[in-house]
Amino acid sequence: MEIEIGRAKRARRVYAFDDVAVVPSRRTRDPEDVSVSWTIDAYTFEIPFLAAPMDSVVSPATAVMIGRLGGLGVLDLEGVWTRYDDPEPILAELRALPSDRATMRMQEIYSEPIKAELIRDRLAEIRAAGVTVAGSLSPQRTQEFYQTVVDAGVDLFVIRGTTVSAEHVSKGQEPLNLKKFIYELDVPVIVGGAATYTAALHLMRTGAAGVLVGFGGGAASTTRATLGIHAPMATAVADVAGARRDYLDESGGRYVHVIADGGLGSSGDIVKAIACGADAVMLGTTLARATDAPGGGWHWGAEAHHPQLPRGYRMEIGQTGTLEEILYGPARVADGTANLVGALRRSMATTGYSDLKEFQRVEVVVAPYQKVAR
Known about the structure:
Layout: E1 2-6, E2 9-12, E3 20-22, E4 38-40, E5 43-45, E6 49-51, H1 60-68, E7 72-76, H2 88-96, H3 99-109, H4 116-128, E8 134-137, H5 139-151, E9 156-160, H6 178-184, E10 189-194, H7 197-204, E11 210-213, H8 223-227, H9 233-250, E12 257-261, H10 267-275, E13 280-283, H11 285-288, E14 298-299, E15 315-316, H12 323-328, H13 340-351, H14 356-359, E16 364-366
Parallel strand pairs: 6-7, 6-13, 7-8, 8-9, 9-10, 10-11, 11-12, 12-13
Antiparallel strand pairs: 1-2, 3-16, 4-5, 14-15
């Protein structure tokens, strides 16, 4: 439905997760009978959760923990872990920075060059633990470091930026040819973000195994305030799921996974992301609240320390419980920030669905509500 903004401009009505809700069907199930496993390429995970490549969320140690808990930890290969031999003092400083100095000091900290040998060593540390290895680079750094990443034995390669397109135009430098790049790699690639049907369809045609929906950053992002760009996630996920359906027909059966990335502050948001068509979700803030997370109760993303135009900030989010408690409970809070897997299972069971693919067919209604501060 289009709305007239003014005589020269019309806009489509779109929806955030807070605007929609799932509806129970005629059948219910036992939560223990519900499967929340997820498979992409040759890799199967017990839960459809990827930990976002952010320094406050994923370290080599937490990537291993998340892997052992059934998910996938994606290490930021442009973060402090690949810039500093010992990042612990740096992380301690980042947590302690006064708010008025945080952005400037973060820009200084992240101006330290990325070291190829540290990329190799950090990925080797994760691999030695026997879990699936995933690392992330921005499109700008991919050409420079991808060979190091592949040689280190990465299982899944993530190209993640604010907006990633299959057709980047630049007069000043040779852009990354995603289709050629993905074709020549021997590992599956997840790429994004994208927020529209057309952008996602073009990314799927590059050969990507998965497409990230949204612009990442979530609660710590100010992209809407700085660039005026915003993608209400319920509509974005549903649009990209539509591109997946059409590409499945176009390609003769090639299935590309849709991964919601951003705007997932609670277990209810995760439920609604999958209901709108996501196969899995990438989590930042929700996992940064873990007592085991490297942020120590603080959260920030790569956009917070951009050297020319920061589009985020370091924020205090507190700590909810251990990583295991956040994923599997028991929850000690009633706000949807703990026992994320249990909440997903219960929602699927309450609405009568036995696995994630079935749950994508659940009825969704437009039901906006105002969150009540407590």
